[in-house]
Write a structure and sequence with these properties.
Blueprint lengths: L19 H8 L7 H13 L4 H21 L4 E5 L9 H8 L4 E6 L2 H10 L6 E5 L5 H5 L2 H6 L7 E5 L11 H9 L7 E7 L6 H13 L8 H6 L5 E2 L5 E2 L20 E7 L2
Parallel strand pairs: 1-2, 1-4, 2-3, 4-5
Antiparallel strand pairs: 5-8, 6-8, 7-8
Bound molecules: S-adenosylmethionine (SAM).
């Protein structure tokens, strides 16, 4: 609703049209969303009240992946594409808890993320935010703010969390991921999380339809398709796995909820 929009809001924010970043923020219990976003999210939650646990499971998978890359693989620089609105814990907090020297560049194309990200995700010499589009990787990786913070001749950890499921088949999700490879030094890693078509919960079918009609552009895919998006990378154990099972030795406790089969994670290395 327009009355939700603060007077000093940056240009480009349309409160009446739901966006992925704001609906997702609402699922995570955030406050940077408008009535139009809550309407879509509430419709989904009427069908699947536990829907937010999918988003929460996704955040845990990101924490596990980033911690693993920073602590076990020695990666100290990250690019988080489709970062979303700042949440309680963000990639630079996960990374720096494991490696105090880690630096992070956040990228998103939603102007509301730019507004809040600049305020909350920016710390000189540690983290910065750039407005950028996944479909224009050269612009992202040549952005002066990115090249000032990261050394692209060294391995980078790329986080593609809950973004590739917004890429329709017509836009060639595998090609979109592959296009990033040329900017990555050998030893770089890519973690991808994706809505998963587990096909075992009829309520989810209905929720998918609501998401699709209210927001458009969210695609649940089978794990074999998601694996294909990692072509050209060496997939690390345990492969494409539910967030419940992915890196279970990670820093947080196990995730038990059955809906965690609706989100999978996979980590790959550029050799
Ligand atoms: C569901 S949220 C995921 C946020 C966060 N990565 C996470 O997993 O917790 C998807 C994010 O991707 C962003 N996004 C979608 N398409 C994009 C594109 N083409 N380029 C950059 N960001 C995009 C949205 O604005 C949104 O913030």
């Amino acid at each position: 609703m327009a009355d939700d929009l603060p007077e000093n809001a940056p240009a480009g924010i349309d409160p009446t049209t739901p966006t992925f970043a704001r609906v997702y923020d609402y699922f995570l219990g955030g406050k940077d969303n408008f009535a139009a976003d809550r309407e879509v999210a509430d419709m989904v939650m009427q069908l699947v009240p536990e829907a937010p646990v999918v988003a929460q499971g996704n955040r845990v998978a990101i924490e596990r992946a980033v911690t693993y890359m920073a602590r076990d693989l020695g990666i100290d620089q990250f690019v988080d594409i489709g970062s979303g609105l700042p949440t309680a814990s963000n990639v630079h907090q996960f990374a720096r808890a494991a490696n105090p020297d880690a630096r992070v560049v956040y990228v998103d194309n939603d102007p509301i993320v730019l507004a809040h990200g600049r305020a909350l995700l920016t710390e000189t010499g540690v983290a910065t935010f750039i407005q950028g589009d996944l479909y224009e990787p050269r612009k992202i990786f040549t952005d002066p703010a990115l090249t000032a913070l990261l050394d692209l001749s060294r391995p980078v950890g790329v986080v593609l969390a809950a973004i590739i499921h917004h890429v329709p088949d017509e836009r060639d999700p595998a090609g979109v991921v592959r296009a990033l490879h040329e900017f990555l030094a050998p030893g770089s890693h890519v973690v991808l999380t994706h809505l998963h078509d587990a096909g075992d919960d009829p309520r989810v079918e209905e929720a998918k339809r609501v998401l699709q009609s209210g927001l458009g552009g969210s695609y649940f895919r089978h794990s074999s398709e998601i694996e294909r998006f990692m072509e050209g990378l060496t997939i690390l154990e345990p492969g494409v796995a539910h967030v419940t099972e992915w890196r279970p030795a990670g820093p947080t406790g196990p995730l038990e909820h059955p809906l965690h089969t609706q989100m999978v994670a996979v980590l790959g290395r550029k050799d």
